[in-house]
Amino acid sequence: MPTRHERSSEKKFVKLTAGKTKIKYFKGKPKKHHCALCQGMLFGVPHSHKIHELAKLSKTQKRPTVVFGGVLCSNCRKKVFEETAKVSQNLKSIDEVSFKIKEFVQTAKQVMEK
Predict the structure, then answer these.
(1) Is 87 exposed, middle or buried (0-12, 13-18, 19+ CB in 10 A)?
(2) ∠ at Cα 21 (16, 24), nearest 5°?
(3) This model's pTM is above 0.85
(4) Cβ pair 112, 84 in contact under 8 A
(5) In the chain, pLDDT over 90 holds for what percent of residues?
(6) Where are the domains of the chain?
């Protein structure tokens, strides 16, 4: 009988040399990374079956080195920076910014001030 963690795994029947069959359990490939705002697929962020393959990659190979790289897609990142520019130039107050992107705008403002 499979253990608890094997129940959700993919199972395959493997034939052995003695003519018997054995069940082997495989974990599925992890899903691709998604944008935090629009749930679109993120490009430039690798995913793999094996965790040790990702652990061997350098930091710059694991995610893009731009601000919010690996978190937001390019379109959402552009919207956040446009709103940040409006807030920093006092054209808009932070309360007028959409609730969805308010946290990202505050973080971007702190990064721009440094």
Answers:
(1) buried
(2) 95
(3) no
(4) yes
(5) 46
(6) 32-113
